[in-house]
Amino acid sequence: NNTEKRSFEAVRLDKLVEEAIQQIVFVADQKKIDIGFELAPACVSGDTLMLRDLIDNLVDNALRYSPVGASVTVRCREAGDRVEFFVEDTGPGIPEAEREAVFSRYRRLDVKVPGTGLGLAIVHEIVTLHDATVSIGSGAGGKGTTFTVSFPRFDPDASITAGEEVDAA
Ligand code: ATP
Ligand code: MG
C-alpha cells in the first residue's frame, strides 16, 4: 500500500473535475444531456491519473445510462475534514439491492447498453487506495442515481510545515 502511495501529491480535485468535464461534454451534447457543475476549491492527497480515472468512470456512467434529455450534475466541495465529490443523474437509478454488487467486476444491470462491467470495480479500488469511501444513493426527488465519494481533506499548508514540498498552483 505504501509503495502505491509514492505517486501521491496534492491534487486540486475541482480542477481535475473541470478538465474531465471539458473532455466529455461532447458526449452530453450528443445525448442532449444537460451537464452542470458546482466546483468549489478542494484539495486531496492522491494519484492524479487514478483520480482522473475515477472521475471519468463515474461521469461516463451517468451519461451512458441516462436517457436522452436527462441531466447530470457534478459537484465537489470541502466539508470539514472531508472532500466530497458527487455525480448525480436523472437516469434509471440503481436499486438498493444492487448498490453493493455493482462494485464487483463484471456486474452489469442494463445489458442493452454496452460496457464491460469493470468501471465501478476500478473506482472502488481507487477509492480504497485513497482512504476514501464511495456510496450510491438516489438522485434528486428519489429518482436517478447519486454517487458520493468522500476523501480525507488534504491541507497543503499543514504539509509544508511537515517538511514536504507542495506546488500551490
Ligand atoms: P465499463 O467497464 O465500460 O465501465 P459498465 O459501465 O457496464 O462497463 P460499471 O461502470 O462497473 O460497468 O457499472 C456497472 C453497472 O452498474 C452498469 O452496467 C450499470 O448497469 C450500472 N450503473 C452504473 N452507473 C450507473 C448509473 N449512473 N445509473 C444507472 N446504472 C448505473
Ligand atoms: Mg462504466
Automatic annotation (TrEMBL):
Residues 1-155 form the Histidine kinase domain. It comes from the Bacteria. It is found in: Cell inner membrane. This is histidine kinase.
